[in-house]
Amino acid sequence: MNNSHTNLLDIDVNKLQEELMALGEPRYRAAQIWHAIYQTKVNDIQDVTNLPKSLRINLQNKFTLGNLSLLNELRSSDNSTIKVLFRLCDEKIIETVLMNYNKRNTVCISTQAGCALGCVFCATGQMGFERHLSVGEIVEQVLWSYRKLNGINRTLTNIVFMGMGEPFHNYENSIKALDRIEDINSIGMSARRITVSTAGHAEAIEKFARSGRKERLAVSLHASTDKLRTQLMPINKRYPLEVLMNACHLYYSITKRRITFEWAMIDGVNDTEEQSQKLCKLLNNIDCHVNVIPLNPTDNYNGSHSTRNLIKQFKSQLESSGIPCTIRLRRGIDIQAGCGQLKSKHMR
Ligand code: SAH
Ligand code: SF4
Q1: Per-residue pLDDT of the chain (348 residues; tens, 9 = 90+)
Q2: What is the number of other CB atoms lying within 10 angstroms of the CB of residue 8?
Q3: Which end of the chain, N or C, is more open, meaning fewer C-beta atoms within 10 Å of its C-beta?
Q4: Is the pTM of this model over 0.90?
Q5: Which segments within 1-133 are labelled E, that is strand?
Q6: Which residue ranges form the domains of the chain, and what is each CATH number?
Q7: Could you tell which of 106, 122, 289 is best to mutate to test the pocket of ligand 1, judged by most ligand atoms within 8 Å of the CB?
Q8: Is 19 close to ligand 2, i.e. is its CB under 6 Å away?
Q9: Is the minimum distance from the CB of 293 to ligand 1 under 6 angstroms?
Q10: Does the CB atom of residue 117 touch ligand 2 within 6 A?
């Protein structure tokens, strides 16, 4: 892949039109190419055979179609999860995970290489921040998923922004990527099938709410006291629980959409009576759903997942306070399908 070439996925349709006009091409070529990329989902501009050969060569001299090259692909033993590592043109590495469950095909995509937020239990956080992904690099993970699923007669039904990185730290590109994914003239996925997960960037949650977006929101909570949350998630210093919950209430009052709170169960850390009681209080007047997930082990954090019994107990305690709660299985454990885990293994 050539660094001096422009990634076609990084430009919008107007810019594409300008580029084609500069090549002396008629206006309708942009629409043809756009359609081929986002609806036919071609992998190579040479496959767009309704373009003249000379134009295809001109395009190839100036542009690349995408910036990801497949480095490694793993399937879980039950075939439900496919995890891939992609190398970007500057050698950075990101992960994308496809999951098949109950007729749903969901892709979990990355928005950054690494992450600056440093949650102690997270393999991506343990790597530190490398860089933001571009709009094209985010969207390409989705295009790749469609192609991959198409090869086995399936189609993508859901997208979660829950791979490497914090989408709200790369706010602008994440939003532009969402627009591209949802645009009926591009991929056309419904916003209701897309979830954006944040570690709790309160300002961005408010901005997101006010901008009238229709995606679902997930907030990674993991602790119900500032003391513990700050230990686990340093972002809590900047946006402590009160500030975060105010942003969540504002989000709900504007959008009327139920928030999902994520809670990774860590043995003896956040599965205690104190934590569950305070969590019930924290969530008692907001329409929400809690997903509890047994912690996935990582190299640089020595916590382990809570016992099955404690997880069940935690769930019933929330439910008896009227808070809906689901226990999520960590899928693809055998292929390091936790956030950032495959890359950590690759680097070792
Ligand atoms: N940065 C965003 C989205 C990416 S992380 C966020 O933090 O929400 C996606 C989810 O995986 C988050 O809920 C995160 O807390 C969770 N996660 C990270 N490491 C984990 C681990 N080792 N075990 C279980 N969940 C983990
Ligand atoms: Fe970043 Fe999310 Fe991992 Fe925290 S959990 S370090 S915010 S990717």
Answers
A1: 456 899 999 999 999 999 999 999 998 999 999 999 999 999 999 999 999 999 999 999 999 999 999 999 999 888 889 999 999 999 999 999 999 988 899 999 999 999 999 999 999 999 999 999 999 999 999 999 999 999 999 999 999 999 999 999 999 999 999 999 999 999 999 999 999 999 999 999 999 999 999 999 999 999 999 999 999 999 999 999 999 999 999 999 999 999 999 999 999 999 999 999 999 999 999 999 999 999 999 999 999 999 999 999 999 999 999 999 999 876 555 555 556 666 666 666
A2: 21
A3: C
A4: yes
A5: 6-7, 63-64, 69-75, 81-87, 93-101, 104-108, 112-114, 129-132
A6: 6-64 (1.10.150.530), 69-347 (3.20.20.70)
A7: 122
A8: no
A9: yes
A10: yes
Using a 6 Å cutoff on CB, does residue 338 contact ligand 1?
A: yes
Closest-CA residue, ligand 2 atom 4, reads 119
Q: Could you say which of 19, 25, 95, 262 is catalytic?
A: 95
CA of 144 to the centre of ligand 1 (A): 23
95 is known as an active-site residue: yes
Q: How far apart are CA 122 and CA 128, in angstroms?
A: 10
Q: Whose CA is nearest to atom 8 of ligand 2?
A: 165
Other Cβ atoms less than 10 A from the Cβ of 13: the count is: 15
To the query of whether residue 73 is one of the catalytic residues in this protein, the response is no
| Length reported for the chain | 348
